[in-house]
Amino acid sequence: MSLANHFAAYTSWRSRLSSCIGDFQDWLGQNELSDAQTDLRLTQLLDRLREDHLNVAFVAEFSRGKSELINAIFFADYGNRMLPSSAGRTTMCPTELLFDGNKLPCIELLPIQTRASNSSVTEYKGFAEEWTIVRLDVESPEGMQDALRHVSETTRVTPDEAGRLGFPVGEEEVDLYRVGDDGLVEVPRWRHAVINFPHPLLKQGLVILDTPGLNAIGAEPELTLSLLPNAHAVLFILAADTGVTQSDLAIWKEHICTGGTTRRGRMVVMNKIDGQWDELKSEDEIDAEIARQAKSCADILDLPAGQVFPVSAQKGLVAKINGDPPLLARSRLPALEAALSEELIPAKRDIVCDSTESEFGEVNRRVRGLLESRLAGLREQLTELTELRGKNKGVVEYMMGKVRAEKDEFEAGLQRYYAVRSVFSTLTNNLFGHLGLDSLRQLTVETREAMLDANFSKSLSTAMGDFFSKVRESLGKSSHEVGEILAMMEAIYKKFSVEHGLKLGSPTAFSLLRYEKELDRLQAWCDSHLNTVVSLLTTDKKHITQKFFEEVAVQVRRAFEHANKDAEIWLRAIMAPMETQVREHQIQLKRRLESIKRIHQATDTLEDRILELETVEKNLLQQIHALEDVAGKVRDLLQPLTADYLKAA
User: Fold this and answer.
1) Which residues are CB-neighbours of 433 under 8 A, at least 6 positions away?
2) Cα angle at 410 between 406 and 416, to 5 degrees?
């Protein structure tokens, strides 16, 4: 099965999952088992599935064949090269290929001059007027090619402006940015490009990131801080004729194999093996030479040889367009596509399954608990009424008094619940006092002032270190408050379960560990790119400050925004079962008392009431079975892929 077919199968699975969750949501509404929070959680889950993307990044130095490899893997069916691909530098700026049905096919280009501001590319995506729009004529291959050449455009600026925009002049062993005879430097015209194209794979949620070389990656830290780490797959491309160069190794160590370890979905492609095809050599000799080069690359990158995939993207593209199976096999492109399919699609499916199971499972357990609570209350009523058969009026009065006493006891216990609500509110305020964006905003202002006022490099370094220390302190205090809330809710869950028979289980746990790790990653990047002795001594203070807030502080703020959102969802989720069960128990006690009252007052016959409750019991059991059926369809789709399925695929 090709990568396109694998991805189509994944998209179909995701659609079926969304459909089943939608059916579950509709069923809850039809059976009056939903509430505002349950409906919100399921709607958010469906929105996440609808907006789910598969991000694949292609990373390499210039002239390694990235764009050609993208054309060969994803766009050969289009019958031509979608992305410009030729000798030399073609991808001058980071380029995203995606599909947004709310926009016409076009290329959105962000001018390089925006680098001089304090805003990231992500922030600029919120201001459409800052981008230059080039329409795409999807019916004309020639028109498409002409339009797509815009991503390769350059402009000429003064050396000072080139430096200000992040392009060092004459500082590298290989000068990519040199002063020409006219005294100007050639730099990319665009900072970022977004190609909105209605390709079938892009319509299904594939997002492709084509990156420029090392110098351009370093000039746009958002790539290394956000886009590359969040990619589900990163293909690192080498050239078979050059092997691993110094700049290749720098990209691998600094931007892909960070911390000395490779993550799942990181793959190495040794492109241009057709350069080894020699008519004076046998196929075995050619294969042995390619294998030696692949092993050499693997040794330098400290990888098993099997993780380096030799291919010829150009021959693979030609073979696909011309329908030439022997040439396609010789290009070895199918082997890369198979490995990418087996690595990427299951990994992405696992991520979606984990997040969906967590959210859906919580909602399903809550609804199941509600129905079981109703059933238990109903059966308690039935038992009480059945025991009244043949009893005199005094026994009925005694039973009524007993239920009334139980109701009074529960309502007295509600004072403890209301007290918990009050403490819960206080702890919640404390949590958001530490985790909230107001305190982070104040810290950001103070750090910026400290960095701009710093007279020595040590003071600048200290200001950056203090920023991270105080952010960590806020996360630590937030984690403590989370622990306090969880401990309190565990105690009250247990108390109400024992004293009043509520089916509460255990409260949902929550951790800020992922945000602590994100902070570790951001500080490691800062310490290796900004807060270094060389950088502090050779780079202008204002430039370091700008980069720190333009990239690092922005990413910290995003992490806190996500943490706030997750904490809000958790707080609602941890209190909701308690609120639902307390409300349901109150209703059940009221109904029990009302039933006995009616019998005592002879407004209802005992047998009629028992028959009525037995009918309700039957309906509740049917609802529980129906819930199991509709929820089971979702659970079936969340099961791990079977060996038979993987073998067939």
Assistant:
1) 439
2) 155
Task: Say how far apart CA 34 and CA 606 lie, in whole Å.
Answer: 32
Say whether 39 sits in a helix, a strand or coil.
helix
Q: What tens digit of pLDDT does each residue of 571-611 get?
A: 888 887 777 777 777 777 777 777 777 766 655 677 777 88
In terms of residues, how long is the chain?
649
Q: 53-153+189-331: which CATH topology?
A: Rossmann fold (3.40.50)
Provide the residue ranges of all domains of the chain, joining segments of one domain with +: 1-52+338-362+611-649, 53-153+189-331, 429-581
Q: Which residues contact 202 (CB under 8 A, 6 or more apart)?
A: 97, 98, 99, 208
Show the tokens assigned to 404: 């009334």
Residue with tokens 């050639």: 186
Give the 3-state DSSP-derived string for 93-150, with helices as H, strands as E and coil as C.
CCEEEECCCCCCCEEEEEEHHHHHCCCCHHHHCCCHHHCEEEECCCCCHHHHHHHHHH
**What residue has token string 């969750």?**
21
Nearest-angstrom CA–CA distance, 497 and 491: 10
**Segments in the chain below pLDDT 50:** 88, 172-174, 260-261, 643-649
Query: Cβ–Cβ contacts within 10 Å for residue 93, how many?
Result: 25
Give the alpha-carbon dihedral of 479, 481, 484, 486, to 10 degrees: -60
Question: pTM value?
Answer: 0.73
Tokens (6 digits) for 20: 């089943």
Q: The tokens of 210 are what? A: 């084509």
